[in-house]
Amino acid sequence: MRYRLGVDVGGTFTDVLLIDEDSGTSFRAKTPSTPQDQSVGVLTGIEKVCAAAVTSLDSIEQVLHGTTVATNAILEGKGARVGLVTTAGFRQVLQIARSFVPGGLAGWIIWPKPEPLAPLEHTVEAVERIGADGEVIVPLDEDDIRAKLRKLRDDGIQALAIALINSYVDGRHEERVAAIAAEELPGVPISVSSRVLPELREYERTITTVANGYVQPQVTTYLENLLNKIDKKLYILRSDGGLASAAAAAANPVSLLLSGPAGGVTGAVWAADQAGYTDLLTFDMGGTSTDVALVEKGLPRVGRETRVGDLTVRSASVDVRTVGAGGGSIAHVPELTKALRVGPQSAGAAPGPAAYGAGGLDPTVTDANVVLGYLPTELAGGEISLDRAAARTAVQRVADAMGLPSAEAAAAGIVDIVNENMFGALRLVSVQQGYDPRDFALVAFGGAGPLHANALGKLTGAWPVIIPPSPGVLCAYGDATTSLRDEAARTYIRRFSELSDDELRGIFEDLAESASATVEAEGVARADQTITYQVDIRYHGQGFEITVPAQVKDFDGAGAGLAALGAAFDAEHERLFSFLLKNEHELVSIRAAVSGPRPFVQATTLPEGGTDATDAVRTTTDVYVDGATVSATVYDRAKLRAGNVVTGPAIVTEMDSTTLVLPGHAATVHPSGSLLIRPVGN
């Protein structure tokens, strides 16, 4: 048998999914993450899942991995010491930035501006200049830059970023500086902006290239260690939801900053499609954070910016918003305000919530769910046993600090607050983008997502709430079922009156050929490739642009293609801002993305069982809901059949997650295995 393996490393758990490539049968495993060395948790998970499938590592042909190594390097400030080469006169490009200050009025007074990833003392200027038309204005002074690179070498830089003005038009000077740097700084990884991001805007191109260099040594070391231990063909999930080979990922690690969340969105799209839904909000709640995204007509929204902490880079990514709200989020009551707060601090995998019995003392969201009776006594298939007494002791501290009558009241408050935090994130991807969440289904997954899904359905009005099979390992499922992808881009600033359909079609074809060759080199035949196109358009005179899809078939030489792009831009502009301008349309950038086919996975088909779910009942338990203790029925999800109806209050348990069905709601089992939760009567 031949297997492919999906691996997702989260802040608390590492999820592994093994898929038989011939039959599509899958096996799953969940194990605590090992932050000190993520590869340890990955290997433990691989051993567990191979044992479950009665196979060995030798039978695995491909490993598909969503990793947070690049993300953590940014968040923890533990990246490389980066040197930067800029054009003379642009040495302060990172310090000037875009003069944007987050927060409300007077935020600039108290906002601590983050330090640039490449400090000024490690930034040198190259005597050179290329014009916006690609003409060389000042030739490169090679002797001067060689001497400056030697100084950077003596300063002990660990990575080098090269970002010269207008290099997106012509990168010849950057390439020459890179060649000299390879001689003067042997062994130091070099990031070149005309390769990393061949698009206009010097600050965005520079910060993206510097970020690439900042995370590159850590990502490269991690991938090399993992390859040495598993000795398999390794692919890494990119932020935009596609796969890249380990070598391509190591060369362009800035494209991995949202690698982990992208896998969950991919898995959610597949699960929702099996249940018959293509418009959905995804809600991935893990142990450390919650990631949300919007999917329209089966396609996740892909943005041109990636945000991690205080850093924003110009790199394609699924439009995922993250909040510090997870099962391990710590509840606390500040002495000054006496107002309950939850997160963003997390107990993580070590020591974890107090209920884990591993030394954690702080009250967390998991502890609150234990106190409320929502969680069973064991998690991760019995690997983690919950200490209810320790959870109650931790949560009681919150009750005492706030003068509440019981630990249950404090636990309910913790859950309410974390739900509101996650509701705020869902509004960011829906209401603030011009979408009504009531027009979408809500797909909940992650180890903690199904516990809070019903409550988020009530807050958003998004029905049904869909709980996929094995929701705790859905991110790994997305990793294992993602296709190879590559993208080529070009900045080409022209007003529509200066363009023709034939000219634009030629550029599309050139870019598609470049990306297609990369995917073909990874073993995907041209006949199996799918090509999509995007363009960035603005009104002439505007300082920002909107990305819209393009159809090459429309470019027939008669102007229909440009007309279609203009109409698509106007429709999106009006949806986002509720007005249009009479200014001429202007093209800014063009992109072609090439994807391979998605691998075959056997879809679940449950046998019909009628509405009566009695055969799946395990026991009953007391839960605290709406200020009172009530009796809830506990179901074994493995015994549920298609058509079964689980009426709340109820708890549905499985190996990797627990689902809570609130009073006044019912979950219907879809033949695909998903639970569809709706208010009773809807």
From TrEMBL:
It comes from the Bacteria. One of its GO terms (cellular component) is cytosol. Residues 503-668 form the Acetophenone carboxylase-like C-terminal domain. Residues 205-486 form the Hydantoinase A/oxoprolinase domain. Residues 4-184 form the Hydantoinase/oxoprolinase N-terminal domain. InterPro entries: ACX-like_C, ATPase_NBD, Hydant_A_N, Hydantoinase_A, Oxoprolinase-like. One of its GO terms (molecular function) is 5-oxoprolinase (ATP-hydrolyzing) activity. One of its GO terms (biological process) is glutathione metabolic process. This is N-methylhydantoinase A. It comes from Asanoa ishikariensis.
